Amino acid sequence: MKIINLKSGHIQIYKRENSKFWQMKLKYPKEKAIRLSTGTKILNDAKKISLDQYYKYSTFKIREDKKKKNDFKKIHLIDSKNLSKKEILHLIKESKKYIFFNKQKIKKYKILEGRTIFNLFFEDSTRTRTSFEVAAKRLGADLINVALKDSSINKGETLLDTMTTINSMNPDILIVRHPEEGISEKISKLVDASVINAGDGSNEHPTQALLDALTINNRFKNFSKLKIAICGDILHSRVARSNIEILSKLGANINVIGPKELIPKNIHKYPVHVFHNMKKGLQNCDIVMMLRIQKERIVGKFMPSEKAYFKKFGLDYEKLNFAKKNAFVMHPGPMNRGVEIDSKLADDITRSLIQEQVAMGVAIRMACLEIIIQNRDIYGK
Asked: Which residue among 68, 77, 216, 322 is the one 20 to 30 A from 181 at the CA level?
């Protein structure tokens, strides 16, 4: 019997001596193998048929959960402040199937085949942009990256004209990062596509906060018993604002720590406790989330020297001892090692969840893309 393996053995094509047609054996994680006839004598056709069948069944396995209760019915993801606790928990729950999926050798579902997603990044990004790109491609979508340097905005075109042009191409989702606060909401009212805010100035970054919540949920099941410190440049941090919104709704107690000059004047409208001292602010904390100083947003304002800042507010093992004994460390990236966090601590896999945050980013963004497009199909624009 002749056997041919495809997709690292997830697909086997074989032909017995007394058989006319090539047969296929499809193997999925935690599933019984499926054996079917390809209905063809030609090997190349058998390969194509078996691959199509493999992806078709994969798509069905994800989509069969559609009838389950959907607590997130929005077609845009613009901010965290308008997300309910139910919506947040639904997105976290749906992302967990992708944590397992992303550990498999074959990381490809065609659930979004034929859908078009634009990555529109008008600020520098590595983690968020590539995370969305990986998420979209693993779900089978067509992904187009548009960076500021590649856009006609450099030739004088307005952002509105750029969005109108892209809208004419009938995309399904626009993922937008831009320095202007509130721009994602404005764009969502101009275009037919769904919009995901990937960061708008110092305002919000909802998928970062969702992935942080997912990372924490993997370690702690009950948010209401948690004490979380967010430390650093709170004033200019969209990550801080989104995390405060989401983590407080989930029941966590939140401390914010930083120099007075880097704490927003309206901080008291948020459900947080404010500290200007690491020792007091880290007391009994389960999670310590560090933020970088956003030099690109500090123009003509307070700018501490890196050495002085690290001595007072940079996280090292000595300061981490003020928190709970087994407290974990998080950072949304990019890190400034030796400024807001000690390099050895950042790489300590017994305490640092930083790399896990990156992995959770792909899972949460896969869930967001799937659910938002599903909602578009069900509820329309």
From this structure: 216
Cα 199 versus chain centre, distance: 12
User: Looking at residue 315, what DSSP letter applies?
Assistant: B
pLDDT-above-70 percentage for the chain: 92
CATH number, domain containing residue 212: 3.40.50.1370
Helix (H) or strand (E) holding 287: strand 287-290
Question: Which structural domain range is residue 14 located in?
Answer: 2-66
Is 117 inside a domain boundary?
A: no
**What is residue 380's predicted lDDT score, i.e. its pLDDT?**
74
Q: What is the spatial distance between Cα 103 and Cα 99, in angstroms, rounded to a whole number? A: 7
Does residue 172 lie within any of the structural domains?
A: no
> CA-CA distance, 122 to 6, in Å (whole number)?
40
Q: Based on the number of CB atoms within 10 Å of its own CB, is 24 exposed (0-12), middle (13-18) or buried (19 or more)?
A: buried
Domain count, the chain: 2
Banded pLDDT at 236 (limits 50, 70, 90):
very high
Final residue of a structural domain among 42, 66, 90: 66
Distance CA 210, CA 88 (A): 7
Residue 45 lies in a domain: yes
The backbone torsions φ and ψ at residue 104, rounded to the nearest 5 degrees and listed phi first, read -80, 160
For 187-237, list the strands marked E by DSSP: 194-200, 227-231
